[in-house]
Amino acid sequence: MILKHSKQRDAIKSFLMTRKDHPTADVVYTNVREEFPNISLGTVYRNLTLLSEIGEISRIRVGDGIDHFDADISLHYHFVCTHCGSVLDLNMESLSHINEIAGAGFDGKISGHVTYFYGTCPKCTSQELLS
Amino acid sequence: MILKHSKQRDAIKSFLMTRKDHPTADVVYTNVREEFPNISLGTVYRNLTLLSEIGEISRIRVGDGIDHFDADISLHYHFVCTHCGSVLDLNMESLSHINEIAGAGFDGKISGHVTYFYGTCPKCTSQELLS
DNA sequence: TTCCTTGCAAATCGTTTGCATAATG
DNA sequence: CATTATGCAAACGATTTGCAAGGAA
After folding, report:
1. How far: A1 CA to C3 C1' (Å)?
2. Is the pTM of the predicted complex or chain greater than 0.90?
3. I need a labelling partner for B16 at 20 to 30 A (CA). Which of A88, A94, B46, B114 fits?
4. Residues of chain B positioned with their CB less than 8 A from the CB of A114
5. Alpha-carbon gap, residue B43 to B39, rounded angstroms
6. What is the CA B66 to C1' C12 distance in angstroms?
């Protein structure tokens, strides 16, 4: 499968790069439609899937049943606010040591882990103080 | 909301307790139907949701888009085989220290984390050696 | 001209829900 | 009797897919 250039795909990737809040496919669709009014949701999904398969973006699953996408493919962890649902980046060291912890008593091969944290985000925390 | 006893709910919980492989709702449905041929998928879902809300079972999400259920509610981690898709328990220490690592440079409140590991399970690992 | 990509709509799949009826306390 | 639980089927929401037409190499 040889990739051909597509303006829609470029627009999707470009939009994603302007955002650091991990938009869903639907949010991508709504925004890219400003530039390409005829783009279809199917095209958005196809390209988000393709881009994540070739490693240009990453697909994030944080347990809300909706996939989020991130143009930042550097290794980092995410935080999900249980109040407002927002997904934030965490600036923290790698946790690769937990792979060894998990592998210690395990006969198979551990090649990685998926981790995200949850709690109250800074914005919601400050609003709690007021009430 | 006061709970009333139900034979279907008992059967669902009992079935789940006999299994350590984290069945999906559909697997629960198929199996409980042997005892209750008229039980509906809706009832299975309603009870799995209810039981997990009252903390009698836990709902596991491991990124395959299908919910798995576990009657073992003790704190433990899961492993997902990227070859055969099976979900296994890991016998390992708690990773609660990673909450502090994550919270160090973060202004909100971290109340917990979700972690699962992936790789090749013991069964698939031994099959690899043969090929 | 080859064949990848698109737009559109229909289909899929896991899960939830409305409703009338049955079972529980 | 009051209320929760059930079975059934329809509805749902996110995502995928078939197909004919369009666009890139």
Report:
1. 10
2. yes
3. B114
4. 63, 114-118
5. 7
6. 14
- Residue A8, Cβ density class (10 Å: 0-12 exposed, 13-18 middle, ≥19 buried): middle
CATH 1.10.10.10 spans which residues of chain A? 1-72
Task: Name the region of A2 (left: φ>0; alpha: ψ -120 to 50; beta: rest).
Answer: beta
Q: Is A98 exposed, middle or buried (0-12, 13-18, 19+ CB in 10 A)?
A: buried
Helix, strand, coil percent values for chain B (each to nearest 5) = 35, 25, 40
| Domain B1-72 CATH class label | mainly alpha
| Alpha-carbon span A11 to A31, nearest angstrom | 10
Which residues interact with strand C by a CB < 7 Å criterion?
A 1-4, 6, 8-9, 36, 38-43, 46-47, 50; B 4-7, 24-26, 41-42, 45-46, 49, 65-67
Query: How far does the CA of B12 sit from the C1' of C13, in Å?
Result: 22
What are the residue ranges of CATH 3.30.1490.190 in chain B?
75-131
Q: Which CATH architecture has domain B75-131?
A: 2-Layer Sandwich (3.30)
